[in-house]
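As a warm-up, study this chain.
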Amino acid sequence: MAAVITRPRKDGSTAYLVRWRLGGGRDAAWQSETFSSARAAREFKRDVEAADHLWPDGWVKGHGYLLRDHNSPAAGVTLQAFGTEFITELTAIGPDTRQRYLNQIAALAKQFAPIVGHTVTVADLTESHIRRWINARTDAGAKPKTIANYHGLLFAVMVEAIRAGLRHDNPCAQTKLPRRDVDIDTDENKVFLTEKEFAELLPHVSEHYRAMVQVAVGTGLRYGELTALQVRDLDLDSPIPRLSVRRAWKRNGTGDQARPGLDRFYLGKPKSKKARRRITLAPVVVDLLRDAVAGKAYDELVFTAVRGGRIDQAKFYEYVWKPAVKAALAAGLRVKPRFHDLRHTHAAWLISANVPLPVIQQRLGHESITTTVDTYGGLLVQAHEVADAAIEAALTGGTIAKPRPVGPVPVAADLDVQYDANDQLPDDEEDAAA
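Now compare it with the structure written out below.
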C-alpha cells in the first residue's frame, strides 16, 4: 500500500513524499514521487493504488501527467482557448480589465509553450512548469508584481478547470512567488523634489497646465484621478476645504471586448476602495482650484486640454511634461522627475513635516499601510531621530519633548460615490480573477 510521508525542506516548507513498492510486492523496489501539496500527494497516492502500485498511465516522474489520454475531457483544450472563455464570462469587471486579462492569457500561453514543449493544454501544466515559468520571467526582468498578477490570473483559470473536470489539482497552489517588497521603487529610482527644485521646474510648464501641476504636488493625486476631477468633487467653501476622489479615467476594450456606449476613454471608479477618499486642501491649493473652476458647471472637468475635454496622458507627457523638464534641466535643475514623482514629492513633504504615516496613507489612497511604509519608509529620518532621542532619554534619565499633536483629518469611509449618465460608469472594476 502506498503511503504519504511528510518531510521538512531547508527553506522551511514541507515536502510530501508518496512512497510504495513497485507492483505491491513485499520485496519489490521502492518508488517515490515528491509533491509540495498534501492534496496533490493524496490524489497521486490514490492513482498509484488504482494502478495496482505501478506508475499511473501517462505520469512522467518529476513532471506529472505529461502524456495524456487523447480520449480524456482535457485533451485538446488549450490554455488560451479555455482561459479566453473563462475571462469572457467574468462578471463585475470593466472592458479595460477584461481586455488586459485576455492579453495576459495569450501571453501566458506563448510563454509556457517552450517550457512544456508544445501548445499548452489546460491539463499540461505542473508545479514544475510553474516554477520554471517564474524563474524564466524573473530572469527576463519581469517585476515581482507583474509575475504575481499573471500568476493570479492563471491560478483562477486553473480553479475553473478543476470545476470543469479538466484537472484534479491546481499547479499554482503551492508555488512561491518572488518577494513583492523588492518591487518597490528604490529611493534612487524615485525623485523627491525639494521646494526649491519644484520652484525651478514650475515656470517651464506651459501656463495652461501650471495650476494642474501645482495641485498635483499639493494633493498627491494620481494622474488619472487628477484629470478626472469635476467641479462637484470640490468643497472649497467648507470650514475645512477638501476634495473627493470619486472617479478616474479608464480605457475601454477593443473589438468584441469594447463596451457599447462608452468612448475609448471613460470615467470609472478609482482603482480600489481606499482610492475613493476625501483629502483636505491647503489654502494655496484652494485658491488654485477656485480659479480653475470659475464659470464652470458642476459636472465639468476641473482641468482640461487647451481646447477643452480630457487631457490625453501621452500627449501631455510628450508635448508638455518632457519639454518642461528639458528646459528646467537646461536652466540648472539637477533632477529629472516624472509626473508621478509629484505624488512622491507630496508624500516626502508630508513626511518632512512629521505627518503620521496613517494620514499619508489615507491621503494617497494606499490600500495598505504596508505600501506606504515600503514606498516611503526610507525617508523617515526625523522619526528615527525621535526614536533615538527617546532611547537616549530612557538610558540617561533625561526627558524628551513629546511630538506636537496633529489635528484630525476627515475619514473617507462614508464617502458616497454617486454617478450620473454623463459619467459613463460601468460596474465595479475590482479584479475578480486576482
